[in-house]
Amino acid sequence: MRAAQAKKTPPPGEQLLSLLLPLVESFARARPPNVLILLADDLGVGDLEAYSASALVPTPAISALSAAGVRFTDAHAHPICSPSRYSLLSGNYVFRGRRPSSSWGLSGGSQLLPGQRTIAESFRAAGYATLLLGKAGIGGEVAALPDELRRSTEDDRVDWLLRRGRRLADGPAQWGFDESLSMVSGIQSPPYAWFNGSVASLPRGSRCWGTATHATRTGDWVSGKFAGTGLRHRRYTPCGAGDGHDGAADWEGHMADAHLSQAALGFFDRRRRARGPQPPFFALVATAAVHAPFTPPDRFRDADIRTWVATSEVAAPRRLHVPHSSMVAELDAVVGALMAALRSAGELNETIVVFASDNGGLSCATKQHGSWRPSPETPAPPFEDVSPERSGLQSPLCGANSSAHLRGHKGDLYEGGHRVPLLVAWPAGGVPAGGECGDLVGLTDLYATLLDLAGLAPPAPGQAADSVSFKRRLLRPRDGHPARSDLLVPSPPSWALRWSRWKLISLAHGSQRATELFDLEADPGETTNLLPPHNVSGQPPRASGEAASRHEATAARMAQRADQILGRGVSWAFL
């Protein structure tokens, strides 16, 4: 009897924590915390020292943030950027938005449907000042666009926006942000311009830059190879005489994160200088790093990040610039600058800081986009080293494997495509420093979790339908049970489903569908499909029956939403 009682009694440390937790929560409610979300672009777990021993780029600021809070090791986004950004803002899976696989350009509105309340709107309703800096990335609409241009091309709409309209009708101002300095699609696609709220910032007018071409003092940064095939915006194509405008005349793609950082520092400084108490803030800072084109400021290109590369053209190793690695270094510098500014303003301890990426890391082939070359005639760096002693191996110019030990990269439904870094720090709110949590969580969950941490009401019924608060596990990572038992990773019409140790992937190939089942505990690299005919053991996997029922339920769930979008009776036949 005494043994049973002793087993139920928690250790003294846990007893004390249980007593203190209500006091911490009461303090949080009395003094609402600020919220800062730092969202990196295309950053993989293999790019960061905090997640991978094979990371090549020093990231001391991000490592310090990890040490100050909880590091999540099984966090997930959508496999590509726009759906993840919609999910973060709305708390919904992408198929609940305007289009099944998200919205990208300036046609037909953003991915947010009328009536869907963003996380920014929820915080603003609670008295928060709200701010968006950087890449919006969920589409939008041009204000007062003539009807004939609604049926025209995206290039024509961008040209009219820059030359005449200069305003957005569906952008951050309509999504709950009091202030914003944003890019519609980031540094990789037009319009190459900043928007203050809804208005394009064009102090020197606009121009045609050509395809993803960005001027610097030392040459041109260009997205993609100068020659060869590929999508139009992935190779060098200078403007012709009759081409429309695609960006601001003073556009500096390589300085995007520098401008973003200055805007954030200015926001913090205005709060510090203001008279009287300031309302808490909710800020989403979405960096250009580390998305292609890989165009860091010159100081990173010139000195900071280099690697030794042996190629067939030279007898001895030589040092060559690694563009992607330079942007990882730039990202860390941005994080460090913002943390220092919060500390200087006396607001760091009162701020919930979240650091995450919008999808998995990049493949070596993708890292070729935007390598710095001073002229179109300059040959591309040798990303694929064909020297006899290194035949078939990836060139060191690709840097570290951005997915670390995981299979796949951005765009894939394997873990490397959607498992992302996620760090949460808030010492004054009881988030333990140096904590680690292996729970299954998603970027969709930030909506409910941050409202919960701030002591605010949960999302209203019908809002943030796929968001689950993991507050309790954040404050006590080893206490109780995970907030989630499963997680869907939709990439319509394909999808992946995680539960327990299992992962089910349903891949659409035209009108056909391939299904894969992996045991991630025994096979974290997703090398062995356990479903027939790939299962060579002859024994059915323990989860095969459950996998079949989960596949049917998930397919029906997505097909129901497809009917709502495409019209009743019109379905994705390959679900």
TrEMBL record:
Which superkingdom, per the lineage?
Answer: Eukaryota
In this chain the Sulfatase N-terminal domain maps to 33-455
Q: Where is this region: Disordered?
A: 366-397, 523-551
Q: Which UniProt keywords apply?
A: Hydrolase
Entry keyword Hydrolase: yes
Does the keyword Hydrolase feature in the UniProt annotation? yes
One MF term from GO for this chain?
arylsulfatase activity
Report the sequence similarity comment from the record. Answer: Belongs to the sulfatase family.
Protein name per Swiss-Prot or TrEMBL: Sulfatase N-terminal domain-containing protein
Per the UniProt entry, what species is this protein from, by scientific name? Emiliania huxleyi (strain CCMP1516)
